[in-house]
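Query structure, 201 tokens:
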């Protein structure tokens, strides 16, 4: 029993240290520059009457939903709702996945909902999700600005999107997603402060 607890504690400390390492990536110059640039693009989009579309697969789709609800709902201040849609409707995903193919599920949403001046945000820990590649390509063709939250070298999407951020140094998707979500929260905070500097908190 004592040996088991010792092993568990070592694993616990290693996991926590890995989380701290992941969080520290936010202080890297590339991270700070990305957060600033993404915030500015989102603020400009909203000021010009646009909306944000967000997509990902698996845990990244859950993060997309989290990102969107912080914008359409509230983050830290009571203020006007901001237009954001996570491309997560199960009816749409299963319809297009069944009738056309899973590689087109997000592109079809972009075709239906995206317009020039909007922003499409792709969340991918590999940067190689083919359904996101197709969605980015269509979004750019329609005049949307494209932003990628990526990992593991950035994959295909690194050179496909208008603004890319690659979280380096982690083999597993979970750590990349943790950093992505922290950056999203910072971006939302900056956007909210810029657009609603006089709100009552």
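Result returned for the query:
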């Amino acid at each position: 029993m004592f040996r088991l607890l010792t092993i568990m504690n070592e694993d616990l400390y290693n996991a926590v240290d890995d989380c701290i390492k992941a969080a520290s990536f936010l202080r890297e110059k590339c991270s700070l520059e990305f957060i600033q640039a993404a915030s500015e693009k989102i603020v400009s989009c909203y000021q010009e009457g646009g909306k944000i579309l967000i997509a990902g697969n698996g845990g990244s789709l859950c993060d997309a939903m989290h990102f969107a609800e912080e914008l359409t709902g509230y983050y830290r201040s009571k203020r006007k709702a901001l237009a954001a849609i996570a491309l997560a409707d199960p009816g749409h995903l299963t319809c297009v996945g069944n009738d056309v193919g899973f590689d087109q599920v997000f592109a079809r949403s972009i075709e239906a909902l995206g317009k020039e001046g909007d922003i499409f945000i792709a969340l991918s820990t590999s940067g190689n999700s083919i359904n996101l590649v197709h969605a980015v390509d269509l979004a750019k063709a329609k005049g949307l600005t494209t932003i990628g939250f990526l990992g593991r070298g950035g994959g295909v999407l690194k050179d496909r999107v208008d603004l890319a951020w690659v979280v380096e140094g982690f083999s597993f998707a979970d750590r990349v997603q943790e950093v992505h979500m922290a950056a999203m929260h910072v971006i939302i905070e900056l956007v909210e402060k810029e657009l609603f500097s006089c709100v009552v908190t």
